[in-house]
Design goal:
The protein is of the alpha/beta class. It has 4 helices and 5 strands, in the order E-H-E-H-E-H-E-H-E. Helix 2 runs parallel beside helix 3. The radius of gyration is 14 Å and the shape is globular.
C-alpha cells in the first residue's frame, strides 16, 4: 500500500494576471502535485500568511513564489517580514522578477530568499 503525500501548498504572489496564468500553466504541464493559491499584492500575501480575512482558512504554504514589483507592499518588504517571523522563516521563497538588477538580486538574498529567478520578458 502506498501512502499518498498531501499536495504541496504554494503561494504565488503576483500582480500580473498574465504572469500568474503562465505560472499556473507551467505547474499543470509539469504535473506537479500541488495546490497553488494566488494573491495580487504584498498586503494580501501577508493577510494570507496570517490567515486574516478573506484567508481565514488558508493553509500555510510549503513554498512562496514572490514577485518583487507588487502594489501596496513590494516583494522585498514581504520577504523581510516573512523571514522575520518565526512561524514563516523556514518557508522557502523563490523570487520571480523581470528585474536582473544586481541590487535586486543581492537584496533578495540578503533577506534570505532561497532562489532568484529572472522572468523572461518575451516568449
Amino acid at each position: 500500500m502506498t501512502t499518498m503525500e498531501p499536495p504541496i501548498q504554494i503561494l504565488l504572489v503576483e500582480d500580473n494576471p498574465g504572469d500568474a496564468n503562465l505560472t499556473l500553466e507551467a505547474f499543470r504541464r509539469a504535473q506537479v502535485a500541488n495546490e497553488v493559491n494566488v494573491v495580487g499584492d504584498g498586503e494580501a500575501a501577508m493577510a494570507y500568511l496570517h490567515r486574516q480575512a478573506p484567508f481565514a482558512g488558508a493553509a500555510t504554504p510549503d513554498l512562496v513564489l514572490l514577485d518583487l514589483n507588487l502594489p501596496l507592499m513590494n516583494g522585498h518588504e514581504v520577504l523581510a517580514e516573512l523571514k522575520a517571523d518565526s512561524r514563516f522563516s523556514t518557508i522557502p521563497v523563490v523570487v520571480l522578477s523581470t528585474s536582473v538588477a544586481d541590487e535586486d538580486v543581492l537584496v533578495s538574498y540578503k533577506l534570505h530568499a532561497s532562489s532568484y529567478v529572472a522572468k523572461p520578458v518575451d516568449l
